């Protein structure tokens, strides 16, 4: 990630700071609306899942300059997602696009094309690691 991308992600994330769980709930609502078949991958309380996603987003945000340090954890998480939930590449694509759409909706006009490209790059790296 370039310093410009990292800066853009930081600025856009700051717009949702303190509201990560609400944003995560909006994300899951949007994900299931667009991909109803994915709801079965999350059999538990979606509020708990939203808390987990919010924590992961905060971890990634705090690790932008050292994403390499997250590789083992991301690979483990991806392996568990495949084994326990059958998560495939198409699911990662839907997840990433829906997260970008949700961030755009919640951050508003501050989520410009640079932010979209930066988040796309970040999520592509993360999903790639999780699929290794």
Any key phrases for this structure?
132 residues; mainly alpha; 6 helices; 73% helix; globular
Can you walk through the features of this model?
The chain has helices spanning 3-14, 20-34, 46-62, 71-85, 89-107, 113-130. It has 132 residues and is mainly α. 20% of the residues are buried. The model has no long low-confidence stretch (mean pLDDT 94).
Element layout with pairings:
Elements: H1 3-14, H2 20-34, H3 46-62, H4 71-85, H5 89-107, H6 113-130
Helix pairs in contact: 1-6, 2-3, 2-5, 4-6, 5-6
Largest sheet: none
C-alpha geometry:
globular
User: Which value, in Å, is the CA radius of gyration?
Assistant: 14 Å
Counted beta strands: 0
Query: Structural class of the secondary elements?
Result: mainly alpha
Summed up, the helix count is 6
Low-confidence stretches: none
**Level of helix content?**
over 70%
Mean pLDDT: 94
Along the chain, the helix and strand elements come as: HHHHHH
Strand content: under 5%
Note the gap between the termini: 19 Å
Summarize the structure.
The chain has about 130 residues and is mostly helical. The protein contains 6 helices and no strands.
């Amino acid at each position: 990630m370039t310093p410009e991308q990292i800066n853009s992600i930081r600025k856009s994330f700051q717009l949702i700071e303190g509201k990560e769980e609400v944003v995560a709930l909006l994300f899951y609502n949007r994900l299931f609306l667009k991909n109803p078949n994915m709801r079965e991958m999350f059999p538990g309380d979606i509020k708990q899942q939203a808390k987990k996603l919010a924590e992961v987003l905060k971890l990634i945000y705090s690790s932008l300059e050292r994403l390499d340090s997250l590789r083992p954890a991301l690979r483990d998480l991806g392996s568990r997602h495949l084994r326990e939930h059958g998560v495939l590449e198409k699911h990662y694509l839907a997840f990433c696009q829906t997260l970008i759409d949700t961030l755009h909706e919640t951050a508003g006009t501050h989520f410009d094309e640079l932010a979209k490209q930066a988040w796309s790059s970040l999520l592509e790296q993360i999903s790639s690691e999780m699929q290794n």
